[in-house]
Amino acid sequence: MTNELRRYYSELRDKNRRIHEKRVAECEQKSARLRSLLSEPGLVFQQVALGKLTAAAAKSRIGAIAAERRNLLISLGYAGNYLDPIYTCPICKDTGEVGEPSRLCTCALKKQQEQLLAGSRINDRETFANFSDAIYPDDDQKKQGLGMKRFCERYVAALPKPEKPNLLIVGQSGLGKSFFSNAIGYAAIEKGIRTVKTTAYQCIQDILSGIDAREDAIAPFLSAGLLVLDDLGTEAMVPNVTVETFFRILNERAAAQLPTVLVSNLDRDGLFERYGERVASRMIDGALTSIVLLRGSNLRTRMR
Ligand SMILES: [Zn+2]
After folding, report:
1. Which of 297, 279, 274 is nearest to 289 (CA)?
2. What distance in angstroms lies between residue 267's CA and the mean position of ligand 1's atoms?
3. In b/e form, how buried is each residue of 233-245, taking b as 16+ CB within 10 angstroms?
4. What phi and psi values does residue 197 have, to the nearest 5 degrees?
5. Distance from the CA of 107 to the center of ligand 1, in angstroms?
6. Whole-angstrom distance, CA of residue 289 vs CA of residue 304
7. pTM of the predicted model, to two decimals?
8. pLDDT (average), residues 166-184
9. Please, which pLDDT band fits residue 297 given cuts at 50, 70 and 90?
10. CA distances (Å), 28 to each of 23, 36, 256, in order?
11. Which of 54, 78, 156, 261 is the most exposed place for a label (fewest CB within 10 A)?
């Protein structure tokens, strides 16, 4: 369980405990009998500990107290379980874990996904589940799209350690490159992988803002469990910044064996021309990178 998730459950338990305490105080105000009923179980346990009451007698006494408390609450206009402990998730009792050995509760998986999605710039619309081959204009392009989907799903299945950590998706605008890269990111988050998606434009803007604020804004791009770098070629070419940033990202992520998805309209020559030998040769390095080329007619224009 991540620290962020642990903190969430700790705060959730505190919140529910405070609500419960407020309910108890409120009911004690309303009924003196209820107040003594709430303290009686403690006295019963004390008597058991002192040997003055058998376990069986204690059990029946506790049952009677609970029944009287329930009836009293109902007569006061409350639900019978108004003073029971409050759990947002009764399955894990707000611990986030179930079973032995413990695993994440369904509520924790959902919360983890929300938390990962929140900082990721991944959207929940462009996903494999929302993929439709009806968008393709002809059989060739449909075949290519379905092949691409299968390929991307295999890549995701192999995360966090695909045989080749990097995936380079190239092709003209409007062939679904961004869709697939987002879908990969979303599926990675479903696997609990901390994913960051950015356009190359936004990435360089972040770095430049960081320089203005005297902060090194590159850290999230270096440390993400999966980085999706979309739209390479749309960023500002700032001397001593753009090429150096991509070099550092590619180099340090490769050294840490972290997977990266790169997306661009540029072909091989275009990448070399724009980023130079040192960066482009890393982008297309066959030992580290699977390269997928999408062809066909623009899907966006066709949909209009
Ligand atoms: Zn739960």
Report:
1. 279
2. 48
3. bebeeeeeebbeb
4. -115, 140
5. 4
6. 34
7. 0.80
8. 93
9. confident
10. 9, 8, 59
11. 54
Ligand 1 centroid vs 272 CA: distance in angstroms? Answer: 51
> How far from 70 is each of 10, 56, 220, CA to CA, in Å?
29, 21, 53
- Expressed in angstroms and rounded, the spacing between residue 260 Cα and the centre of ligand 1 is 32
Q: Where are the beta strands (DSSP E) in 110-224?
A: 166-171, 195-199
Locus of tokens 């070629």: 233
User: What is the distance between the alpha carbons of residues 19 and 236, in angstroms, rounded to a whole number?
Assistant: 52
Q: Residue 22 to residues 17, 62, 70, 95, 185: CA-CA distances in angstroms? A: 9, 23, 18, 22, 43
How far is 60 from 64, CA to CA, in rounded Å? 6
- DSSP SS3 for 264: strand
pLDDT tens digit sequence for 97-139: 999 999 999 999 999 999 999 989 999 999 999 999 988 888 9
Q: What is the pLDDT of residue 296?
A: 80
Tell me, in angstroms, the distance from the centre of ligand 1 to residue 129's CA: 25
pLDDT digits (tens, 9 = 90+) for 30-83: 999 999 999 999 999 999 999 998 999 999 999 999 999 999 999 999 999 999
**189 CA distance to ligand 1 middle (Å):** 19
